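tool_call predict_complex ligand=DTB
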Amino acid sequence: MAFRPRYNWTTDEVSDIYHLPFPELIFQSSTLHRQHHDPTRVQFCTLLSIKTGGCPEDCGYCPQSAHYETPVDRSEMLETGIILKAALKAREEGATRFCMGAAWREVKEGKDFDQVLHVVEEIAGTGMEVCVTLGMLTDSQAKQLKKAGLTAYNHNLDTSEEFYSKIITTRTYQERLDTISHVMNAGISVCSGGIIGMGETIQDRCAMLAQLARINPHPESVPINLLIPVKGTPLEDAPPVDSFDLVRMIAAARILMPLSRIRLSAGRLLLTREAQALCFLAGANSIFTGDTLLTTPNPEVDFDVRLLSDLGMKKEEAIGPTCAIADKRSAERFVRSFRASDPKTK
Ligand code: SAM
Ligand code: DTB
Ligand code: SF4
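tool_result ok
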């Protein structure tokens, strides 16, 4: 019988998993990982910021917010040729997915969005998976992106509903959920995850994971970011996260969402090679590659190629989304499920 994931996780259940003795936790996550994925393969996904800085939102972690004095300057949308060249370079360096980010509160119809649709079409034509992260979007914009060939839309929950307002005040949690439902409705894969290290409790982290794991079908990709504290942002002095906490997050995400790609995302320069290897053992099977994330540094590709080779692992060749892709019915179910609160039943 086909494997059927669960979609009714409670925060308490996630917390029980998260707090398992470390060997037990890794055994469980690693077992599920190898049942559903090749544990020796890691997907390379490369990011490009196509419209940087000057964002009207006040996300407390973000160097691109216009609310803070950070080292990131505002710039206009990159030219199409530059974007396509970057995508081809990423492909040559082994990336099978290319993700473009814009520092927008929301998508606005017009010249810039038309350009995004055009580059999505071109990059999808190369056979790469294409993802964009453009802020909030409507049903109709999601449908246009789907038509252009978009694989996935990244829109993170970022943290728990309870902690959210300590980090962002210009956009509500509900607005995030609405955007995710528009993405699902258009039949685009959802990429959604969060950040750890912003001052949230372990309970907040577990609540975020439970929230993600109640999305049915599960997000096709789940980025787990370590906060990169950037000078000028309200979180510039946030204390570092213990890497065992990151490994626990990844293991718990793998157990809750066995079919998803769990992406070890921002913050890898803060980790040792050994900590990254533990993340792979725990079930991470994708990383952002290339020397820049959107605006901050990331390990060089050579470093990552060497890391995988030293571990006897390989980058993944294109295999396409590993989760079911949402549709109109699942979008409706999703909207209904978020009207009901944390289910107490197993
Ligand atoms: N403007 C769009 C939005 O917010 O949906 C897309 C771009 S935004 C930069 C994408 C994600 O990057 C955020 O949701 C957040 O999880 C992550 N991110 C941003 N700044 C970060 C930082 N300093 N450290 C770790 N992750 C960060
Ligand atoms: C995600 O969850 N992390 C990526 C991607 N999705 C778009 C972005 C990380 C950004 C880190 C800070 C920066 O480079 O600006
Ligand atoms: Fe940064 Fe995106 Fe928030 Fe804008 S909406 S401040 S780009 S995370």
